[in-house]
Amino acid sequence: MGDGRSIRVWALAAATLALAACAGTVPEPRTTANGPGDRPWSPSGLPLPQARPPATVPARIDPGINRPPPGLEPVIHEIWRTFPGRTGIAIRRIDGNWSLARRGDEFFPQQSVSKTWVAMAALDALDRGQIALTDRVRITPDDLTLFHQPLAGRVQREGNVEMTVAELLETAITGSDNTANDSLLRHIGGPDVVRRYVERHSLGRIRFGPGERLLQSRIAGLEWQQRYSVARNFQVAREQVPMSVRRMALERYVADPDDGASPLAIVDALTRLARGELLSPASTRLMIETMGRTRSGPQRLRAGVPAGWSVAHKTGTGQELAGTATGYNDIGILTAPDGTRYAVAVMLASTTASIPQRMAMMQSVSRAVATYHGQ
């Protein structure tokens, strides 16, 4: 679908909400790319109502706890169907028993979404008495990474910097600083510590890559050199890589990402975090409050919810090549004014949509969750 028609569909998403309320649950599409498949469609463009199985819960139980609000899934499906590129969406009610997804079990590049697992592994080490929030971590020019790293300017001015674990955690999550995140990762013992945390808690289809420098170099068809951490040296070196090599490296990454995670695994992990199943009460509170101060991606999921809702989230943004963006994501916990919580993940493996269109799509997902809340 062309970008013009797509943006009109997203803009009309709110108008379709009331119409979709009469529609039933839509089965997960079996197609390998976003598209309508071969299912019949109503004149409105929304899926025709599907037969519902008999109720399996007592009538006295609030049905909103055990199933998505009627009409939410068709609207999410339409958002997913009309967006150009390979898109994954998952939503789970944290205080209930339901989830819905499109491409929910597929691996998508996480990019900086993976900082979530570094922070949680660090807080787990804190809970185990292995580190302290007051630990001081030394950062030198040899520790700098690439892309978004505001901390690099301070290191370059001062020669080396010391920050506490608490400061690194705050900077990595709220500012998505790559050097802060890699420094925190180094302090807790490296990528294997994060992988063991994921495995120990059975978080499922969540991978953790080799760290920012090696990951981004491989995606660009390069081998990491520390000089790439300075100024725009990485971008200059990347431009010298033959286009065929860059394209092959990027396509390999998108098809089987070293840092891949499935949208359903992510919302399940966020649900367990919010329920206090993965960290101590104090660390759970610190993790969610820190995500609530995230400054990156203010026009993604956060911008779609009305006043009175709160959003604790983590964004991710990958490399682009020849008009195709990869790894453009936002995941988070949306909390309604009445305290009901939803875990949401929107992940774009690859898309040709513009940045405003990507943000509008994410807003339409969180707006639909808020609109159908309580129904």
From TrEMBL:
InterPro entries associated with the record: Beta-lactam/transpept-like, Beta-lactam_cat, Beta-lactam_class-A
Domain Beta-lactamase class A catalytic: start-end pairs: 88-347
Signal sequence range: 1-20
Coiled coil spans: none
Source organism per UniProt: Sphingomonas lacunae
Catalysed conversion reaction: a beta-lactam + H2O = a substituted beta-amino acid
Record-level GO BP terms: beta-lactam antibiotic catabolic process; response to antibiotic
Gene Ontology MF annotations: beta-lactamase activity
Listed EC numbers: 3.5.2.6
Similarity section: Belongs to the class-A beta-lactamase family.
Positions of region (Disordered): 28-58
Top EC class, one word: hydrolase
NCBIfam families (UniProt xref): bla_class_A
Record keywords, A-Z: Signal
Gene encoding the protein: bla
Gene3D superfamilies: DD-peptidase/beta-lactamase superfamily
Protein name as it appears in the record: beta-lactamase
